[in-house]
Amino acid sequence: MSQKIAIVVQRYGVEINGGAELHARLLAEQLSAHYEVDVLTTTAFNYYRWANHYTVGTEIINGVRVKRFSTIMSSKRQLRRALRGIFGNKKYFKLLARLGLLEFLDRKYHIKTPSKRDIDYWFVKQGPYCPDLITYIKTNRDNYDAFIFFTYLYYPTAVGMRFVPEKSIFIPTAHDEQIMFTKPYEDIYSIPAFIMYNTVAEKNLVESNFKKVVNNSDIAGLGFSAAAVNLKNVDLSENMDLSAPFFVYIGRIDSNKGCDELISLFEKYAEEQKNVRLVMIGTNYMGVEENKNIILTGFVNDDTKNFLLKNSQGLIIPSKNESLSMVTLEAMAEGKTVIVNENCKVLKQHVLDSKTGFYYSNYEEFKVALNSTLALTDASKVKIAERAKAYVETNYSWDNIIEKFKIALQGIIDGKYNGN
């Protein structure tokens, strides 16, 4: 009888083509060759309010069984209230401060410290709040040999992992952001039996900032290789002008991903350079309008995405917060130059370790990076491609990654990690 694994993640679907959700899907599909795999997820597609989009129940996606549970949405007002609670900034604190009582009451009663009620409220309102999923985990814990939980931030992991700690592998996808260091998450790295980090930078971030971290861990990430493109499936808009050299951005078009800054920098650069474009591939959450310098594709299929990446000058990733950046590694696997935000330690480390690409922290560095990429000779492009592909092949092959998961999963099944 095959061993049965549950993968718990906040969203799941072929239409969700980035971040932890894509990571979860690719890992589930790889593990399904060795284990019986169930994905436990929600009916949400949009991560802003977690509205129910998919149908409750079970479906098969690329050979993997997916069980979906409904969400209960929160309002923006409730989320703001939850944020004030965990950051110790409740509305009535302003009145207490004006009366000169806030610091006195905090010293005496610790009123700024989030209470258990504040923390519980945060988890529910941050979401996706899916109590049926948690009930399923509690009532079916003995039907699975192990659980793999994705992403420290969200309700399914932050709450669900506590009911199966000795059976849990935790993939935190942690990055240096303010919310990570708040009270709701101070003990989350001590709960699971095993932590599988994406990068050395992520492991160092966690272990240098949290007192309670389990000893059992490894670094895996995802497997990548150059993708074949079926030209029959490439779907480009008739109005898409790719006659000029172009760079690509791939991912959510979202201010949280640094897209507002990227657009501002690129618009300035394009006015100086005149004959260069930025193709932004992904769902437009910012209401960005297309112009002669910026081409928006919306969500596209993999063949279209890979076609645009292969034919681009390189990939630009402006995000300051990444725990792995799959699209960066995809670009490297294609041998493409990557240009990344220096303020993201993970992205910068990819560039340094691979000895390819560029990083920037201001417009002048951004300009130099793009100019240098455009000026590369064919011979230089070949050398960069060789180094980038070698970096990915050495550090991110599926064979090595699945072997690491097999070792971790067997340790959980054998009870090796009990007593953390």
TrEMBL record:
Transferase found in the keyword field: yes
Glycosyl transferase family domain segment(s): 243-388
Gene3D superfamilies reported in the protein's UniProt record: Glycogen Phosphorylase B
Pfam families: Glycos_transf_1
Protein's UniProt name: Glycosyltransferase
This protein's record includes keyword NADP: no
Keywords: Transferase
Alphabetized GO MF terms: glycosyltransferase activity
Superkingdom of the organism of origin: Bacteria
